[in-house]
Amino acid sequence: MKLGILQCGHAPDPVAQKHGDFDHMFAQLLAPYGYSYEVWNVVDMEFPDGPEAADAWLLTGSKHGAYEDHPFIPPLEALIRDIHASGRRMLGICFGHQIIAKALGGTVEKFKGGWSIGRTAYDIPALGHVYLNAWHQDQVTTLPEGAQVVGQNEFCANAALVYGDSILTIQPHPELSPAIIADYLAARAHDPAYPQDRIAAALEENTKPTDDARFAALMAGFLEHGREALT
C-alpha cells in the first residue's frame, strides 16, 4: 500500500534534527506494516494532483490552527473532500484530525480549558484505556455530519472520530514517543506561549510508557479493513 503523507507543518528544528520531520516519525511508527510513502509538504503549498496519487492518506500535525487564514488551508480542505468522495481511506492526527473535521462541516476552536501536553489517558473502545502523548489547545467542538466519537476523555470529548468506513482521526500524537516528546518539552521549557505547570507535569509523567504501538496497529488495521478494525 502506498500511503500519501500530507505534511501540514514541520517539527521544531531541535526535534527534527534528532528525530526527523513528521513524515519520518510516521514512517517509523508504521514501519512494521510495510507501507511505501510519498510526502507532500502541503504547508509549503506542495500538493498531489489528486486522491489517486496514493492508495490511502495521512494528515500530520501542525503549529497552525485549522481556523486560521493560511494559503494552504483552502486547497487542503478541497483535497480532503476529494479524498473522502473517492472512498480512499484517510487518517488524521492532531491538526489533521481538526482540519478533516472542519473541511467536512465541523467546527474547531481554542478550548477554554487550555492546553493538553504530554502523556494523557484516553478511552478508545477498540483498545480500552490507553495513554498517548498530546500537544494541543484547539479541539473539534462540533462534529461534522456522519462523524462518530470513538475516543475521548474528560478534557477532550471528541478525541477520536470515525467517518463511515473511510476516515479515522485522533487528537493526540501516537507518533510522538516518550523520547520525542522529551525533546519537545526541552525545546518549550521556557517558552511563555505554553503553560509551564503543564510542561513540568508532562516531564514528570514522561517516565511512564505510552501505547503508541497499539494505536499504530489500530491505524494499520483501519487502513486495511476500515471500520471493522474498530470492533
TrEMBL record:
It holds the Pfam family GATase. This is Glutamine amidotransferase, class I. Residues 73-178 form the Glutamine amidotransferase domain. Keywords: Glutamine amidotransferase, Transferase. The keyword Transferase applies. The keyword Transferase applies. Gene3D superfamilies: 3.40.50.880. PANTHER family: GLUTAMINE AMIDOTRANSFERASE YLR126C-RELATED. GO terms for molecular function: transferase activity. Signal peptide: none annotated. InterPro entries: ChyE-like, Class_I_gatase-like, GATASE. It comes from the Bacteria. One of its GO terms (cellular component) is cytosol.
